[in-house]
Each structure stands twice: as C-alpha cells, then as structure tokens.
Amino acid sequence: MSCYSEFPFPEDYPNYIPNSLLLEYLGMYANWFDLLKCIQFKTEVCSVTKRPDFTVTGQWEVVTLREGKQESTIFDAVMVCTGFLTDPHLPLDSFPGINTFKAQYFHSQQYKHPDIFKDKRVLVIGLGNSGTDIAVEASHVAKKVPFFF
C-alpha cells in the first residue's frame, strides 16, 4: 500500500514493512530514478518568501543554510512536505498515575532501535503501523511485549 505505483516493493517484502525495509525501499527508489543528485541533505531552510514580482512570475525565494554557508535560490514552485505525524500526540492525561510512573515512556516518533528494550517488559499502546512495527521488533529482545490498542 505504501509503494510508488511505478516502483513496486520487491517480491520478498512483507505486506506490512518495518521501518528498516521502508528506508531501504526509499533508497532503492532514489537510486533507480537517479534522484540523489536532486536531494540536498543536512540543509536547513531558513525562509521561503514570495518574490516581489510573485503576481507575475509565481516565483519563490528560498534561503538555506548548509555547512555554515547561506544560499538564496529562486524556484517556480515550492512544496512543503513535512508529513502528517510531525507533532507526536502523547495523551498523558489519559493515564492516571503517569506522574509517579517510574519506568520510561515515549512516543513512537522517538523510537530508533529495539536494543533499548533488551530484557525488559515492554507495553506497546497503539493501533497504527508504528505500534505494530515496534511491538514486533521489541519482541525479539524484550522479556515480554503485550500489545494494546
């Protein structure tokens, strides 16, 4: 469901792919379509503003900062693609006693690797792909992983 129509997932990929395979897939996609030359990594966007003649040209000025060097570039179009899950929702007020809870808790956005669960009892609360991915990965290293949604 998450692949690009012109570049299907490899045949050996499961229906619900973990984040590691999605990252691998995106790398294969970028290589196949020679997109890496178009991507500027480790670059901060400082500002995006309409040019003074925007009503005529529709152009934008984008100021970036990379390796300490600021650069201004003119574009005909700008897309802001931050994703819809950029602000984690962690409804702590729904968990009575959370203020005195002594163990660690965090949103799936903070999760990077299952090693943090080694030999621990882990509770995953969630219904989405992220919760499922984390529960599966944690189950390989944790003592116990119940899953609630």
UniProtKB/TrEMBL annotation:
Gene3D superfamilies (UniProt xref): FAD/NAD(P)-binding domain
GO cellular component annotations of the record: endoplasmic reticulum membrane
Necessary cofactors: FAD
Molecular-function GO terms, alphabetical: flavin adenine dinucleotide binding; N,N-dimethylaniline monooxygenase activity; NADP binding
Localization per Swiss-Prot or TrEMBL: Endoplasmic reticulum membrane
Domain of life of the native organism: Eukaryota
Swiss-Prot/TrEMBL keywords: Endoplasmic reticulum, FAD, Flavoprotein, Monooxygenase, NADP, Oxidoreductase
Annotated InterPro entries: FAD/NAD-bd_sf (IPR036188), Flavin_mOase (IPR000960), Flavin_mOase-like (IPR020946), FMO-like (IPR050346)
Enzyme Commission number(s): 1.-.-.-
Family note: Belongs to the FMO family.
Protein's name according to its UniProt entry: Flavin-containing monooxygenase
